[in-house]
Design brief:
Elements (H helix, E strand, L loop, with lengths): L7 E4 L5 H16 L6 E5 L6 H13 L2 E5 L4 E5 L1
Parallel strand pairs: 1-2
Antiparallel strand pairs: 2-4, 3-4
């Protein structure tokens, strides 16, 4: 039986693309080493799409699979 755990979520609202890149890479490192979570949600919002594109580029480069939730405002990342 699995113990209760806190789902991983990263909210990038209000960050510029440089800050978002740094936070995303740090969160992905923690996600990779997390033995309890198989998914992580990254909230990019709708806005101009700059954060979404930045995160997509990082995920593609790092080899993560992902899908979109909430009208592409959230990116769900899979191990």
């Amino acid at each position: 039986m699995r113990a209760w755990y806190e789902p991983l979520e990263l909210d990038l609202h209000g960050l510029d693309t440089i800050e978002a890149s740094s936070q995303t890479l740090l969160a992905l490192y923690e996600f990779k080493n997390d033995e309890y979570n198989d998914t992580m949600d990254i909230i990019v919002g709708i806005g101009t799409g700059a954060l979404r594109l930045t995160v997509e580029e990082i995920l593609d480069k790092e080899g993560y699979r992902y899908s979109y939730l909430n009208n592409r405002a959230v990116i769900r990342v899979y191990k």
